């Protein structure tokens, strides 16, 4: 790989974690398209009911959120992001829901979630764990802000697939599924349930010139009532 290719790969990896600048809008659109199946699979596994308040961490451009409301019209949504660009994009895509208070979007520093204990009925996140400096802290914050008896869902791509992508840095921490199970359990969650799925990858098609089969997983868990 040439120095130019290395620079491009490094920049894209940074963009996937926290999109920024003009190119960030394009990357966010690709992420939305590529992650659509994972996002909606995770959402469908959450058992979201009318009146529930859902927190999604790492929502990207938020173009998928209107479909959440189509599926469960009387839920409420809170988005949490590192990227100010994604915050603004999500506000743009969800103007009507924001205006009536059904959707809210917040930016944070990647450390402590800016919410009180036991705020949310359901919490979900898609393709975020590989990009975190401290996944255990992240999951512990999810546990803290989830209501007793609430559900948590995480969707992530297999390590083998992530390694096959040319723009993924070798220094990136990629997790085996058993490691993620252990992290979730260590954060206090119980009743872990795993779902395995495959799909054709749009990222592979866009960046490697051919379509690849991506394996992904969804793990759901709950916060004990005690």
Summarize the structure.
By secondary structure, this protein is an alpha/beta fold. It has helices at residues 3-17, 21-45, 65-71, 84-93, 95-99, 135-145, 159-164, 177-186, 202-208; strands spanning 53-57, 76-81, 103-107, 120-126, 146-157, 189-201, 212-223.
- Low-pLDDT regions: 1-10
Q: On the 0-100 scale, what is the average pLDDT?
A: 84
> H/E element string?
HHEHEHHEEHEHHEHE
Give the termini distance in whole angstroms. Answer: 53 Å
* Topology, number of strands: 7
- Portion of residues in beta strands equals 25-35%
Strand count, sense and closure of the main sheet?
7 strands, mixed
List the total number of helices: 9
What is the global morphology? globular
Strand arrangement, major sheet:
3-2-1-4-5-7-6
Summing up helix and strand content along with how strands pair, one would put the structural category as alpha/beta
Helicity range: 40-55%
Oligomer: single chain
The gyration radius over C-alpha positions equals: 17 Å
Describe it.
With 226 residues, the chain is α/β, with parallel strands linked by helices. It has nine helices and seven strands. 42% of the residues lie in helices and 27% in strands. Strand 1, helix 3 (65-71) and strand 2 form a beta-alpha-beta unit. The radius of gyration is 17 Å and the shape is globular.
């Amino acid at each position: 790989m040439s120095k130019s290719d290395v620079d491009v790969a490094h920049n894209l990896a940074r963009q996937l974690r926290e999109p920024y600048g003009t190119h960030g809008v394009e990357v966010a659109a690709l992420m939305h398209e590529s992650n659509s199946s994972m996002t909606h699979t995770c959402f469908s596994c959450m058992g979201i009911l009318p009146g529930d308040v859902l927190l999604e961490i790492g929502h990207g451009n938020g173009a998928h959120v209107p479909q959440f409301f189509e599926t469960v019209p009387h839920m409420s949504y809170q988005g949490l992001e590192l990227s100010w660009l994604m915050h603004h994009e999500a506000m743009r895509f969800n103007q009507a829901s924001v205006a009536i208070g059904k959707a809210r979007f917040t930016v944070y520093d990647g450390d402590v979630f800016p919410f009180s204990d036991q705020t949310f009925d359901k919490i979900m996140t898609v393709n975020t764990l590989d990009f975190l400096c401290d996944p255990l802290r992240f999951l512990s914050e999810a546990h803290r802000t989830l209501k007793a008896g609430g559900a948590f869902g995480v969707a992530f791509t297999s390590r083998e697939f992530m390694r096959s992508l040319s723009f993924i840095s070798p220094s990136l921490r990629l997790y085996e599924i058993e490691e993620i199970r252990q992290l979730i359990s260590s954060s206090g969650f119980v009743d872990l349930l795993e779902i395995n799925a495959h799909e054709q990858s749009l990222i592979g098609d866009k960046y490697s010139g051919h379509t690849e089969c991506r394996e992904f997983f969804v793990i759901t868990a709950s916060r004990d009532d005690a």
